[in-house]
């Protein structure tokens, strides 16, 4: 299925398409062909403020809407997402480059978050204690924060926005979303579908742009909270700037996810897992396995020997090719960045077992295609080990024993996800308990939590205290209020002044 992308894109403010007025634009590419498929306007600070004002105007009415009615809008939104799944996936693939199967899977994972948010009446229930003191009751409620903002990356332009705004609006907030300028069309379509589902105008607004729009969201006094997914450097900036301006911030950042392979691992299962986790979505995901840590030389030799054949046989092609296992990288610039890391790894002395740098596809010579790469004998002091490459590049770091492998994972500055493949329950249990990572897989390579659990990393993979979606997502987008009551009656009279008695103080 092919989708023709509108030549000139727009913002989505107050339930309406709004043409850009700043005079600044960015090019949206078809990464398979290298051709410009659309131009996207970059919002000025004033245009971003218009979106914030639209959200602020819609806030009182939406916050006062009973949670069950908000949930009904989200139920209809979920149904529309299911109806439009093929269109959304094709729109996503045309701008990002990932295969249709991968795109559909990512949209489906976003739909699961919407389904979770549909249960918001249950999730917003507070606590009640009768008789905390004589004739005194105490209860707590969770209330919306206000106008919230989201800043999302190019690699999951449907799923990651749906990690944020469905839960935020279910909780009674309104939202201003700034998607990636590299592939914004599917995100804009989500806004249109939300309106079709009955979401009041201004509850969800989408502005395209660059640092000017981001900085406006981070500093504007009417923005109460910012949710971010992206690189470590930008995430730290978002966190520090947002916090300095009194905002609640969650910034989910980069990763260098390790997979420890024990000598007793099922090697067939392990190889399949590594291939999907390292090279799926061309490695452009924060939960990709980018480091394999085989324990023992024999395990390492077998792993590398079997992997090199599979990596060389990877079927790389455009999303229109139903047999493609991996699509292009998102832009030629990003392809060149990934290539520079492979060049660096060779210079640093790592052994390049499979070299995907020279890949060219007939008929797609200008596309951002890049073959799978496999490094062996990578050392922890190398930059290709330390830094997130965000491409189809797997590094093998050999460990002599389990303790060395665990120490390797724990000493890295990033701690998004980690996995271990083993048949040994004791080993797996110790790894799950001891590894310094926010998400852990036992014989599962990409341990992304289901919608009703929460997503987030440790160390410099997360700035902030609360994870995304699941119970922590609800906590992030609400504020706790505790209320203590006493009703006067004729049964008892007389003031009490001691704190313990629960009277006036």
Defining key terms:
alpha/beta, Aldehyde Dehydrogenase, Chain A, domain 1, 6-stranded mixed sheet, 16 helices, globular
What's the gist of this structure?
The protein has 505 residues and is α/β, with parallel strands linked by helices. 38% of the residues lie in helices and 21% in strands.
Question: Which runs of at least 5 residues are low in confidence (pLDDT < 50)?
Answer: 1-6, 501-505
Structural class: alpha/beta
Main β-sheet, spatial strand arrangement: 14-15-16-13-12-18-19
**CATH homologous group name of the largest domain:** Aldehyde Dehydrogenase, Chain A, domain 1
| Count of domain modules | 2
The gyration radius over C-alpha positions equals 25 Å
Q: Shape from CA axes? A: globular
Description of the molecule:
With 505 residues, the protein is α/β, with parallel strands linked by helices. Helices cover 38% and strands 21% of the residues. The protein has helices spanning 45-63, 67-83, 85-96, 100-117, 120-123, 159-170, 185-196, 211-219, 232-244, 267-279, 297-312, 332-348, 383-386, 402-411, 425-434, 470-476; strands at 11-13, 16-18, 25-29, 36-41, 128-133, 136-144, 147-151, 174-178, 204-206, 223-229, 248-252, 257-261, 289-294, 351-354, 373-376, 393-396, 414-415, 417-421, 439-442, 458-459, 462-463, 478-486. α6 links the parallel β7 (147-151) and β8 (174-178). The longest helix is centred in the first third of the chain and has 19 residues, at 45-63. The protein is globular and about 85 Å long. The N and C termini lie far apart (70 Å). The model is unreliable at 1-6 and 501-505 (pLDDT under 50).
């Amino acid at each position: 299925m092919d989708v023709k992308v509108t030549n000139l894109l727009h913002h989505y403010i107050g339930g309406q398409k709004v043409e850009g007025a700043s005079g600044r634009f960015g090019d949206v590419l078809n990464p398979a062909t290298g051709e410009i498929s659309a131009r996207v306007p970059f919002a000025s600070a004033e245009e971003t403020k218009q979106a914030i004002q639209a959200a602020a105007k819609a806030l009182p009415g939406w916050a006062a809407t009973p949670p069950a009615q908000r949930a009904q809008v989200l139920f209809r939104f979920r149904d529309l997402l299911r109806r439009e799944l093929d269109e959304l996936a094709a729109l996503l693939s045309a701008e990002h480059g990932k295969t249709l199967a991968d795109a559909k899977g990512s949209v489906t994972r976003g739909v699961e978050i919407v389904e979770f948010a549909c249960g918001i009446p249950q999730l917003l229930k507070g606590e009640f204690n009768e008789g905390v003191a004589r004739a005194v009751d105490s209860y707590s409620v969770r209330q919306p924060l206000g106008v919230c903002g989201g800043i999302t990356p190019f690699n999951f332009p449907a799923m990651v926005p749906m990690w944020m705004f469905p839960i935020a609006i279910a909780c009674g907030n309104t939202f201003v979303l700034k998607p990636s300028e590299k592939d914004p069309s599917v995100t804009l379509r989500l806004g249109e579908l939300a309106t079709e589902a009955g979401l009041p105008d201004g509850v969800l607004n989408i502005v395209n742009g660059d640092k000017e729009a981001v900085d406006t969201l981070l500093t504007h006094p009417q923005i109460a909270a910012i949710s971010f997914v992206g690189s470590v450097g930008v995430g730290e900036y978002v966190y520090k700037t947002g916090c300095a301006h009194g905002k609640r911030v969650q910034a989910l950042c980069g990763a260098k996810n390790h997979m420890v392979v024990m000598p007793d691992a099922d090697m067939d299962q392990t190889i399949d897992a590594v291939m999907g986790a390292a090279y799926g979505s061309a490695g452009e995901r924060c939960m990709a396995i980018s480091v394999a840590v085989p324990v023992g030389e024999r395990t390492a030799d077998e792993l590398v020997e079997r992997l090199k054949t599979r990596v060389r046989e990877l079927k790389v092609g455009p999303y229109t090719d139903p047999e493609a296992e991996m699509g292009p990288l998102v832009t030629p610039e990003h392809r060149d960045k990934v290539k520079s890391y492979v060049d660096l790894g060779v210079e640093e002395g790592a052994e390049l077992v499979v070299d995907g740098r020279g890949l060219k596809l007939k008929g797609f010579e200008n596309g951002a295609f890049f073959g799978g790469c496999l490094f062996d004998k990578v050392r922890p002091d190398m930059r290709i080990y330390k830094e997130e490459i965000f491409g189809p590049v797997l590094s093998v770091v050999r460990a002599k024993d389990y303790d060395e492998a665990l120490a390797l994972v724990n000493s890295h500055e990033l701690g998004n996800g980690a996995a271990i493949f083993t048949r040994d329950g004791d080993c797996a249990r110790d790894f799950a308990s001891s590894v310094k990572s926010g998400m852990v897989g036992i014989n599962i390579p990409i341990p992304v939590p289901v919608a009703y659990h929460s997503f987030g990393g440790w160390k410099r993979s997360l700035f902030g205290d609360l994870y995304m979606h699941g119970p922590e997502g609800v906590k992030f987008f609400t504020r706790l209020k505790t209320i203590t009551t006493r009703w006067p009656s004729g049964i008892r009279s007389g003031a009490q002044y001691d704190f313990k008695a629960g009277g006036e103080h």
